[in-house]
Amino acid sequence: MEHVIEPTWEMLHTNNIPYKGKWREMVFGNNNPITLELGCGKGEYSVGLARKYPNQNFIGVDIKGDRIYIGAKQATEEGLKNIVFLRTRIDFIDHFFEKDEINEIWLTFSDPQPKKSRKRLTSELFINRYRKFLKPDGIIHLKTDSDILFESTEEQIKLHGYKSLFHTWDLYGDINQLPEEDQETLQIKTYYEQLFTGKGAQIKYTKFTI
Ligand SMILES: C[S@@+](CC[C@H](N)C(=O)[O-])C[C@H]1O[C@@H](n2cnc3c(N)ncnc32)[C@H](O)[C@@H]1O
Fold first, then answer.
1. pTM of this prediction?
2. pLDDT at 91 over 90
């Protein structure tokens, strides 16, 4: 499908990903910065960002093909040229990008993994994977309904000396503290955000560098 990249088993297991280090030239055909959304689901955030920032590139990553199909279809219908979806496990994400190839990462309503802290997308294990390709000043954004995930991310930030740029337990209560452009970006609502806020959840947000 247009807008979807799905590596073969062989590519992954021989660590031979043709776009590694070449996403700008091979996939996007420009030299613009690239943002990743990990666990993008139906892709609302990636599509929303791609619409808002035509001079940046976006890659939504998820393992579930039926979910990214929805984002990819939307991107095709809108004629967006600056977005693709990558179908893979995030556990292999460092196989896909070269050092400094990625400018920012969004984690949107990631699974909180209450019993398996290593599997959280902000665990040391995952952060060390991101470190291999995220620019040194590259921002990681986390938007979540989960107290467990938010609290453990805050702990990781302190424990490893990452640089916290902003954090709030009540995003929509504190949103006016952020620049107008960030406010607009943070208003994009994913399927899971709508689901959780419908049940009365308070949305938490943090951004940091590693
Ligand atoms: C709770 S959903 C959130 C989806 C979307 N960001 C949203 O807010 O609607 C978590 C998503 O992460 C994906 N996911 C979880 N762990 C993953 C992994 N290890 N590799 C790839 N995708 C993963 C799931 O398939 C699911 O679509």
1. 0.97
2. yes
